[in-house]
Design goal:
The strands form two sheets. A six-stranded mixed beta sheet has the order 5-4-3-6-8-7. By secondary structure, it is mainly alpha-helical. It starts with a helix and ends in a 7-residue tail after the last strand.
């Protein structure tokens, strides 16, 4: 009998893993290369990685051959390896972000099994994580946040697991935590050390684990420093100004300065939480009440206190900071998912709160659907969709209708245990539809790579390229060149353009006029139209191209495009 029971449990576990893997493949891999690369982020991280491959320099990050000191190199390394294996295409550029989500999901499963002693809680947590809007949106977009969150959360999770181990294994887990946090530092910098301290120190004090805090945490620090040291010393030897710029501009000024990049008010993240946490944020009250009322032994107070601190502390930290981007709070969603799953596991008698949460979640797609229908009935165009894009709009409407029906059905059938997964299933429908429902106007504002590549292919191979600062990343990636000149606005290339080895790469209107006068073919690329002084420097008889917000001007006439 015991053997048969174990076999049944094993089959259920395998089925759960296969279903979760299928969800991951559908949401994060299958449609990864459907849309073109967007600017500014995706083309930036694609181009820096491409230049590392071409130059063979894996120490000093460069964009268009210019010094680029905003981030350490680990994210670029992963993108470069992906491009080397899979080619220069959108799928390869996003692949490292998608793999980072898989790493986070594995971490979440292991932590759920360890601290809640339940494969159901662990599997449910992974499902919640994979179907949360911010996790999927960032995990299929080429930025560093998915890789940073995977390494940061991996370090915190390994430390938490170490707290449950005997002396021998404990040191191995602590060393692994140090390695993970070192990788997190190599991805985004000093936050990799600040956030774990702010989360773990209060937790260790709260759970009275003084020996682990005082006598054994040093191993994490030593391994983390040893992980960072080889590259840190190498970059300091070759570019000693890196650490001044990276620490002062990218950390201190972004956190506290009045002129911080991406400055936003304290409540910035609270405004966006209903969207980025959709749909599971709406069942959070039910999960919290269920955990509060649940069996103390089952809910594990030490685990609950950990995930609460882990989710709230980074949210508060980034809310206090002057500079904010919605991707910054991505690390919060791993502990959030575990908290929600643990609450859903104990949701027995308190179905009313859960039902209300699902109905509240249904209001989000329902409100979007109502807006679309209202505009259509009034004869107004739906914002972003042209007259020829009825198919895209119909797909989006169908997805919203289906998700609302699923959510409402889940509320009606809330007493059925499996109905707890319906919010995630509704989200899958929306997420699978979105890549195919992007309006053309978004492409015309965010995706100029194919346009630039088409223009460049119509010109002679010795054409000199001049671009404004906002198009520099996309132009370098599209043309596979790192010798572009910059005019009009320097943008994020300002530091690199000020370096001694970049002298002459920034052109004034007179410089551009002098360059054109040499008789060499010149291509000028601008976003939002070139300035009159730039256009005045170009001779008559050339060629013009336009695509949405983007414009291209060549000093030579061409017979084909």
């Amino acid at each position: 009998m015991m053997g048969n029971a174990s076999a049944v449990v094993g089959r259920y576990a395998v089925r759960r893993m296969l279903l979760l893997f299928a969800v991951y493949l559908v949401l994060y891999i299958v449609f990864l290369g459907v849309r073109p690369l967007f600017m500014p982020d995706e083309v930036r991280y694609a181009e820096i990685a491409r230049e590392m491959l071409v130059s063979g320099d894996w120490i000093v990050p460069r964009l268009n051959g210019l010094l680029y000191f905003e981030k350490p190199p680990f994210g670029y390394w992963m993108n470069a390896l992906s491009i080397q294996m899979l080619g220069e295409n959108p799928f390869a550029v996003r692949f490292a972000s998608a793999i980072a989500v898989a790493v986070s999901a594995f971490t979440l499963y292991r932590l759920g099994r360890r601290y809640f002693a339940s494969p159901r809680v662990a599997a449910c947590a992974v499902f919640v994580f994979l179907t949360t809007f911010e996790v999927q949106a960032v995990g299929t977009y080429s930025v560093l946040d998915s890789m940073f969150a995977a390494a940061l959360n991996g370090g915190i999770a390994l430390f938490a697991i170490a707290a449950t181990e005997a002396a021998g294994k404990r040191h191995a887990y602590l060393a692994a935590a140090g390695l993970a946090l070192g990788i997190a530092f190599l991805t985004k910098g000093f936050l990799a050390f600040a956030l774990p301290v702010l989360v773990l120190v209060p937790w260790l004090l709260l759970t009275r684990q003084y020996r682990l805090l005082i006598g054994q945490s040093w191993l994490v620090v030593i391994v983390a420093v040893a992980t960072v040291a080889p590259w840190a010393l190498a970059i300091d030897a070759r570019q000693p100004d890196f650490w001044r710029y990276f620490f002062w501009v990218e950390h201190v000024q972004r956190f506290a300065a009045e002129n911080a990049q991406h400055k936003a008010p304290f409540y910035y993240f609270l405004m966006y939480l209903p969207v980025v946490g959709f749909p599971w944020l709406f069942v959070l009250p039910a999960a919290a009440r269920a955990l509060q009322r649940g069996d103390r032994a089952t809910r594990n107070p030490a685990a609950v206190s950990l995930v609460v601190l882990w989710a709230i502390v980074p949210l508060l930290f980034f809310s206090i900071a002057s500079g904010k981007l919605i991707t910054y709070i991505l690390p919060c969603f791993l502990p959030f998912s575990l908290f929600v799953a643990a609450g859903l596991e104990q949701l027995h008698g308190d179905r009313a709160t859960y039902r209300h949460g699902i109905l509240a979640a249904a209001l989000v797609p329902l409100s979007l659907l109502g807006l679309v229908l209202y505009l259509g009935l009034q004869g107004n165009p739906v914002p972003g969709y042209g007259a020829s894009e009825t198919g895209k709009l119909a797909a989006l409407v169908a997805a919203l209708v289906f998700s609302v029906l699923l959510l409402c059905g889940g509320a009606i059938l809330a007493r059925q245990p499996r109905m707890r997964y319906l919010p995630g299933i509704a989200m899958i429908v929306i997420l699978v539809t979105l890549p195919f429902a992007i309006p053309a106007v978004t492409m015309e504002r965010k995706a100029p790579v194919d346009f630039i590549r088409g223009v460049y292919s119509a010109l002679p191979g010795n054409t000199i390229i001049v671009t404004d600062g906002s198009l520099l990343r996309a132009a370098s990636w599209a043309t596979r060149r790192s010798d572009l000149f910059v005019a009009e606005g320097r943008g994020e290339a300002a530091y690199g353009l000020d370096a001694p080895d970049a002298r002459g790469r920034f052109l004034s209107a007179n410089d551009l006029r002098t360059l054109v006068a040499t008789g060499s073919p010149v291509l000028v690329l601008c976003k939002g139209g070139c300035q009159p002084s730039t256009l005045a420097a170009l001779p008559a008889g050339g060629r013009e191209w336009f695509f949405g917000d983007f414009a291209a001007y060549a000093t030579v006439a061409v017979s084909h495009q």
